[in-house]
Amino acid sequence: EIVLTQSPDFQSVTPGEKVTITCRASQSIGGNLHWYQHKPNQSPKLLIKYASQPFSEVPSRFSGRGSGTEFTLTISSLEPEDAATYYCHQSSSSLRTFGQGTKVEIK
Amino acid sequence: QVQLQESGPRLVKPSETLSLTCSVSGGSMNNYYWSWIRQPPGKGLEWIGYMYYSGSTSYNPSLNSRVTISLDTSKSQFSLRLSSVTAADTAVYYCARDAYSIGYWGQGIQVTVSS
């Protein structure tokens, strides 16, 4: 099973600041890494697919990069509505896995 | 627009079987992996498993012996059965369309295991 480890677990950020979340895989997964935003009482929303491809209608402040075992999600300028938990997810293996999540709070 | 909707009992007794159905509208079931994912209270997302449209399956090893996912393309539905449930299976359960990334999710259904 491929383990995904996100860092940090929690981040408290002022609106307008840059946010960077890292996801590390226990083995190489190529570019098969996707990022989701999850708010309470909502279903998760796909932000970035295949490490760096924005999904439909995702604001341009969200971007992703990486390959192999290290990936990052960046929010270039945090908006209040970006308060959420962010998850990475790999589809390299038939045994899909998620990272443990990174909660982003607005200061 | 593809839409998914979970349905089923929201309260299940310990040791019984949890059964949920996901109804799919707005698109074909062909060429996708039809998945179940859950979120226990206060915890992160946990992948349960999927069935590919052709019938192959993959399950989370931690749940493998208790999980069955099935597909009925004629009804545009797929289902989850989780046997011998305990309080640890209390969670919000999501159905989802896995095209390697998961662009479409159901709204989620809260299932509580309690006597």
Integer-rounded radius of gyration of chain B = 13 Å
Order of helices and strands of chain B: EEEEEEEEEEE
Tally of separate helices of chain A: 0
Mean pLDDT of chain A: 97
Q: Give the number of DSSP strands of chain B.
A: 11
The residue ranges of chain B in which pLDDT falls below 50 over 5 or more consecutive positions are: none
What's the overall geometry of chain A? globular
State the helical fraction of chain A. under 10%
User: Quaternary state, please?
Assistant: heterodimer
Query: Which stretches of chain A are poorly predicted, pLDDT < 50 over at least 5 residues?
Result: none
Distance between the amino and carboxyl termini of chain A: 36 Å
Structural class of chain A: mainly beta
Q: Which strand-content bin applies to the residues of chain A? A: over 45%
Report on this structure.
The complex is a heterodimer of chains A (107) and B (115). In chain A, 0% of the residues lie in helices and 50% in strands. Chain A has strands spanning 4-7, 10-13, 19-25, 33-38, 45-49, 53-54, 62-67, 70-75, 84-90, 97-98, 102-106. The mean pLDDT of chain A is 97. By secondary structure, chain B is mainly beta. Chain B has strands spanning 3-7, 11-12, 18-25, 33-39, 46-52, 57-59, 67-72, 77-82, 91-99, 101-105, 109-113. In chain B, strands 2, 4, 5, 6, 9, 10 and 11 form a seven-stranded mixed beta sheet that branches. In chain B, strands 1-3-8-7 form a four-stranded antiparallel beta sheet, with no helix packed on it. In chain B, β5 and β6 (57-59) form a beta hairpin. The chains are: A mainly beta (107), B mainly beta (115). Chain A binds chain B through residues 1, 32, 34, 36, 38, 43-46, 49-50, 55-56, 85, 87, 89, 91, 94-101, and chain B through 35, 37, 44-47, 50, 58, 60-61, 94, 98, 100-103, 105-108.
